[in-house]
């Protein structure tokens, strides 16, 4: 169903949709962090980084598809976005597994805090005020009954599939273009 719907769209619009979705996700998690006051755990930060990389690649793909000779570059960029989003899906699945206590948190989730530098109680209290260290299995925000990590599984997988379809359309267009 999704593939038939996307086959009616021009490839340039799919790339713009991907770019817009990624930008919306970045704006959403930054708003939740900075306006909503929800501090991210270590895995949340790991899940956010691929969006920054993919946003830059999506902008580059948006420019490269404008030139008929750069379809191979566009294909490479879209396949890279697809693979990075698939990687983000795997990280999100691990995070959901930690939230649901499928995996132990202390073996996977690590915080890069400087707790070792604490020498006394005053240092500990000062450290706790400065850094809001969250554990990866403590979910504070649910949207429609699902944690943000679970939503990230859905969104990153959707973006991976969408990028793969767009790359396939780009590849078939470039093959048809070069056969003439």
Automatic annotation (TrEMBL):
One of its GO terms (cellular component) is membrane. It is found in: Membrane. Gene3D superfamilies: DsbB-like. InterPro entries: DiS_bond_form_DsbB/BdbC, DsbB-like_sf, Uncharacterised_DsbB. Coiled coil: none annotated. Signal peptide: none annotated. One of its GO terms (biological process) is protein folding. It is a multi-pass membrane protein. The chain crosses the membrane at residues 12-30, 75-98, 141-167. Keywords: Membrane, Transmembrane, Transmembrane helix. The keyword Transmembrane helix applies. GO terms for molecular function: protein-disulfide reductase activity. Its main location: membrane. This is Disulfide bond formation protein B. It comes from Liberibacter solanacearum (strain CLso-ZC1).
